[in-house]
Design a protein that fits this description.
By secondary structure, this protein is an alpha+beta fold. 39% of the residues lie in helices and 21% in strands. It starts with a helix and ends with a strand.
Length: 476
């Protein structure tokens, strides 16, 4: 067993990447890294008692080169009698359609394809060709972009079904392995162009640091990455405790935190809890940077009404007073951009039931003679979905409708009028729910009752009340 094969075998054992009987999908682009991974796993597959499937993505970029790479990987797979799968897409078109960078779109399409193959072949692992130099480049790239400590952990050796067996091998070791074993591979011409940040780091920054500052810069960065990873494993446990204290709800596509609790903690804890919430929704968080986390944190600190933020990965954050919602944008609508609720209005006939089918509500009315009513008992037993009104103060017929601009009412025990909109704000009612709250009005359009919340002071029952109108709101 040669030196690099031995090193990769030890890495697989160290991180418990593969188990006996596993079927492994290998992502092979045709470059030296993935071809080296391909070669080594093929050499040790019998030793590990695993089977392999080769996967290649044609990105629709560099058409002639990409065609040659696809043909090269396919022929190599057939030569070794290994199953081969190819996905051909136009990454530039996908990036444009989804508003992503070409790099982001390419990554999304690759991972989508690999997971489809996982199901098709009932495979257990997906092997990727990231190596030690990729780690150093990733750390510098995230440092430049303002990443926190978690970003500097770099690329994990193993995460879920994804494994990186050559993660501890340097680019020099990989190319030397290919040279000594006369293994051919393709060269991606775009890797020599400093158009992307990663390429600029690889081609310009690391050589400059090696020459002008320290010849072992990559080795030192990897050592730092190990230290940070070990330290953060401890802080993850502490973060989880704080996260659970602030958590109101956690389902597959939504997290709700209590922003009031979050505000009481130090900025460092606030950021880690926010990041933990986002991680629940988007496990990898490659595109979430410090400025995104900080924007969410600062939004939590403001004691205002409804606020929104867009985040990478199709995520949206909405703050409603003491609640902060995290989830896919499709699950967190924005008020004013939702489909408008049509104006609702129905006559409320005393002694009958009235249904508002659009909102799933039913209103029941009854009329009582005051001679048979215990006022003290009424005041104690009433619920928020019930109201008792002085019947003779009302101008019939009554109607039920949703609110209109400029609506005002007289709150209980007050001699002044208040806008319904201001009342909703004071009650911290979420903006997208306000149009669903029904108002009971009389024939002169005076608001009698904000259903489920408060009656108008002008119609409250007193000792002089002769007849009482009872109204109940029921969800159907």
């Amino acid at each position: 067993m040669n030196r690099l094969v031995k090193k990769v075998t030890e890495t697989i054992e160290k991180y418990n990447m593969i188990e006996e009987g596993d079927k492994v999908i290998i992502a092979v682009s045709g470059g030296p890294d993935s071809i080296c991974l391909f070669d080594i796993l093929n050499r040790i597959k019998d030793q590990l008692k695993i089977s392999l499937v080769i996967a290649h993505v044609h990105h629709g970029i560099r058409e002639k080169e990409a065609d040659l790479e696809a043909r090269f990987v396919r022929l190599k797979s057939f030569h070794l009698n290994l199953p081969f799968e190819q996905r051909t897409v136009s990454v530039p078109e996908i990036a444009k359609a989804k508003g992503l960078s070409v790099e982001q779109a390419g990554r999304v399409e690759r991972y989508k394809f690999f997971k489809e193959l996982l199901n098709k072949y009932q495979a257990q692992k997906i092997a990727l060709g990231h190596h030690a130099d990729d780690q150093a480049e990733t750390m510098l790239m995230r440092l430049i972009r303002g990443s926190g400590l978690r970003g500097l952990v770099g690329i994990p050796a193993k995460r879920d079904v994804f494994i990186r067996p050559i993660i501890e091998c340097t680019r020099q070791e990989i190319e030397e392995h290919c040279r000594l074993n006369k293994i051919s591979y393709c060269t991606d011409s775009s890797n020599r162009e400093p158009n992307y940040l990663r390429n600029k780091i690889r081609l310009e920054l690391i050589p400059f640091l090696n020459k002008e500052f320290h010849p072992a810069i990559v080795k030192n960065l990897l050592q730092l990455q190990t230290i940070i990873r070990d330290e953060l494993s401890f802080w993850e446990e502490i973060t989880e405790q704080y996260y659970r204290k602030a958590l109101l709800k956690e389902v597959s596509e939504q997290v709700i935190l209590n922003s009031k609790i979050l505000r009481n903690w130090s900025p460092g804890i606030q950021r880690t809890v926010i990041r933990r919430a986002l991680k629940h929704l988007n496990h990898y968080l490659e595109d979430i940077q410090f400025n995104h986390i900080e924007a969410v944190r600062l939004m939590c600190l403001k004691d205002e009404g409804e606020k929104y933020l867009y985040l990478p990965g199709g995520l949206r954050v909405r703050k409603n007073y003491e609640e902060i919602f995290f989830g896919p944008a499709r699950n967190i609508p924005i008020s004013g951009k939702d489909k408008e609720i049509e104006a609702l209005e129905s006559e409320l006939t005393v002694g009958q039931e009235t249904e508002i089918h659009n909102l799933g509500l039913k209103f029941i009315t009854k009329l009582y003679d005051c001679n048979n009513v215990n006022f003290e008992k009424l005041s104690k037993e009433i619920t928020k979905n019930e109201v008792y009104l002085d019947y003779h103060k009302l101008n019939l017929p009554l109607k039920i409708r949703n609110r209109k601009p400029g609506d005002k009412f007289q709150p209980l025990n007050s001699n002044f009028y208040k806008k319904v909109k201001s009342f909703f704000i004071d009650q911290k009612i979420k903006r997208h729910n306000r149009e669903k709250i029904m108002l009971v009005v009389d024939s002169t359009n005076r608001i009698v009752w904000i259903a489920g919340y408060q009656a108008d002071n002008r119609f409250k029952i007193t000792k002089n009340t002769k007849k009482i109108l009872y109204i109940e709101q029921i969800t159907i």
